[in-house]
Design a protein that fits this description.
- There is one protein chain.
- The protein has about 180 residues and is mainly alpha-helical.
- About 20% of the residues have low confidence.
- The protein has 9 helices and 2 strands, in the order H-H-E-E-H-H-H-H-H-H-H.
Length: about 180
C-alpha cells in the first residue's frame, strides 16, 4: 500500500489526540526566534493569533505533519527538553511511519497507547497502521478487536464514540 493509506489510517482518529489547530505558518522552521538550534527556542514560540500564548513543540509538530514535513516534526519531537508524553509519542509515531521507520513508529504508538491505558482510538489506530506496515496482520486484527470491544461498551454514548467509529471503520477497511 502507498504511504497515503498508512498516513490516513494513522490520522483518521487523530483529532481527539491533537485537537488543537494552529495558524498557518506557526511552528515551522524560521519561527524559532532565528536560532540555528530550534530546540533551544521552543519555549519562546508565541502565536499572536492565539492571544500571544506559547506554542509548544506538539502544536508545532502537528503543523509540520499537516504540511508533510515529517522529518522536521520528528526532529522537533525528539529535541532535548521536549516532554515525551502520549501526544508527543503519537505524533512522533505518525512522523516516523511516514518516513518509513515502522519499527520506531510502532514503539512510539505503543508507548502512547500504554500511557493512555489503551483507550485512545488514535493511538491504537496508529499502532495498527505500524503493525500492518510491518506485515503483522494478526496484531492489527487484535487491535481492531480491542476497538470493537470498546465501541460495543461505549454503545454510542461515550465521549469517544465518534473516534471509535472512525477507527473501527478505517481499520476494518485496511484489513479487508
Amino acid at each position: 500500500m502507498r504511504i497515503a493509506v498508512w498516513m490516513s489510517l494513522a490520522m483518521v482518529a487523530a483529532a481527539p489526540a491533537a485537537a488543537q489547530t494552529i495558524a498557518p505558518g506557526y511552528g515551522y522552521p524560521g519561527n524559532f526566534g532565528g536560532s540555528a538550534n530550534p530546540s533551544a527556542q521552543l519555549s519562546t514560540q508565541v502565536d499572536p493569533n492565539a492571544g500571544g500564548r506559547w506554542v509548544g513543540p506538539t502544536r508545532s509538530a502537528r503543523a509540520m505533519i499537516d504540511a508533510g514535513r515529517y522529518a522536521e516534526a520528528a526532529r522537533i519531537l525528539s529535541s532535548p527538553g521536549v516532554v515525551q508524553g502520549k501526544d508527543t509519542r503519537f505524533l512522533k509515531g505518525v512522523s516516523l511511519l511516514a518516513l518509513g521507520d515502522a519499527n520506531a513508529a510502532r514503539r512510539n504508538f505503543r508507548q502512547a497507547a500504554r500511557a493512555d491505558n489503551y483507550r485512545e482510538p488514535a493511538y491504537l489506530t496508529g499502532l495498527a497502521a505500524a503493525e500492518l506496515k510491518l506485515g503483522n496482520q494478526a496484531a492489527a486484527r487484535g487491535i481492531l478487536d480491542t476497538l470493537r470491544t470498546q465501541q460495543a461498551q461505549c454503545d454510542g454514548t461515550c465521549t469517544r464514540a465518534a473516534s471509535l467509529d472512525r477507527a473501527v471503520t478505517a481499520l476494518g477497511r485496511a484489513l479487508n
